[in-house]
Design a protein that fits this description.
This protein is of the alpha/beta class. It is built from 15 helices and eleven strands. The chain folds into three domains: about 100 residues, no CATH class; about 50 residues, Alpha-Beta Plaits (2-Layer Sandwich), CATH 3.30.70; about 200 residues, Rossmann fold (3-Layer(aba) Sandwich), CATH 3.40.50. The strands form two sheets. The protein has a seven-stranded mixed β-sheet, sandwiched between helices. Strands 2-3-1-4 form a four-stranded antiparallel β-sheet, with no helix packed on it.
Amino acid sequence: MPFVHHLKQYFAAHKKHGSTDRRTIAHLCYTYYRLGASISNFDTDKGLQLAIFLCEAKPGNWALLFEPSWLAAWVASDGSSVATLDQKLDFIKEVYPGYNPATIFPFAAHLSEGMDATAFNRSHLLQPDLFIRIRPRQEDAVVSKLNKAEIHFEKISDTCLRLASGTKLDEVLLINKEAVIQDYSSQQIGNVYALATEFADSKKRVWDACAASGGKSILAVDLLGQIKLTASDMRASILRNLQTRFTAAGMGAYQSFAVDLTSAHDLSNFAKLADFIICDAPCSGSGTWGRTPEHLAFFDEASIDNYRQLQQSIITNTLPYVAVNGYFLYSTCSVFAAENEAQVKFITTNFPEFKLVHQQLFTGYTKKADTMFAALFQKK
């Protein structure tokens, strides 16, 4: 169960907690989980102490829980600013010589090529930011509304804005019509879409095979122009949510169907040839654990291979529906090589008619964003 759902159940059963209590408890729990396996040998009190010290820029309301030496260590050596993470870690190693921060993310042996294991490991100590993608011809309206509401934002590009995590936008923007809440790395996958250049004007049949929340479908509409969109997912409830979201986004001309992509027989009853298949495959989600840090403590390492097999089944069943000269985009929000580079090798080895156009690991951990992987193939 995702921890956010567990918290909702807990608070529903314990009515004594007011809104401030709920925010504080949730924040403290997520902070604790951010230290992952590095505090597995510490009791809960010490684990919480370490988590607050490493994740909070200043002691604030937690100051009463710390001895003077800890409070002093929160300040940089020059006394003019907060301590750096390295300075904090040096202090902790003096107090607890056995503490190993390298084990915050305990699955480093499985990382994709090009990952900076140390930087990725430490990125879990910070809550990722909120990103929005401005839809076509909506930039002036979005910027004006944010400024009027006095919501601070950083302009990453003409279409991408960074905001503080937790920023409430529902009452400020027309979500999905004016802007889409979409992580920075997920937006960058749009650059891979752009490499699919051999569409015939009359053939832009796009199938978002694992549609989930539909973000990549909306991205396809915005970047590829006039398309014939089909969206599918295993869960009928997701498709109902998609209908609501697509309506808000002004997308009425699309088809959808619920199907288990691991069943070739079921798929044959629905699927048709497509010029562009988006396969945002079910995965470990390990590139997003900065947002759901409980996975650092509860993820089962054996699941990596389970996901690998699931992905290969989906790949095998969907590739036959790519039209000649069409494209297949495989993507994950995983940092594990078995779910990324290994699947590229699986496709090129077993389906020689598919040529790799481009593959890329989007290292969002350097930008307070998610980390994602994408590989674009063309069928010849």
